[in-house]
Amino acid sequence: MPRRKDRLPIGSSSQVPFSISDDQWEKIEREIERESEFTIPPDLRSAVVAKTQTMRWRSEARQTALSTREARRQIAGEKRTTVDWLNWTDGLPDEIRAMLMSGRRMGTV
Questions:
Q1: Nearest CA-CA partner of 30 in 48, 3, 5, 1
Q2: What is the CA radius of gyration of the chain?
Q3: pLDDT digits (tens, 9 = 90+) for 54-87
Q4: How far is CA 11 from CA 4, 31, 37, 105, in A?
Q5: What is the residue extent of each domain of the chain?
Q6: Where are the alpha helices (DSSP H) in 1-109?
């Protein structure tokens, strides 16, 4: 397998929409045509761009995500705040308070 050549000049932030210009697609196709006579159809081009953007979003989310421990700590804090507020307003039934504070899951969290 031949050594990889120049890389595409793309930014690293997923905030900027990912795109590949026509000139860049031509460069990619020239590289592909050296090995085969395959041309990239327009629908495949849009799929490549969409998947690349999704990959960038997921990568950035993974790099900036809270640790599981910190996320659980924040959720527990929100539960305590909610319970305190509902107690203050006398709006929380005892069985719901017990279920929330025991850490059992209700629905999604």
A1: 5
A2: 25
A3: 888 887 777 777 788 888 888 899 998 988 887 7
A4: 19, 22, 30, 41
A5: 22-64, 68-102
A6: 22-35, 42-64, 68-88, 94-102
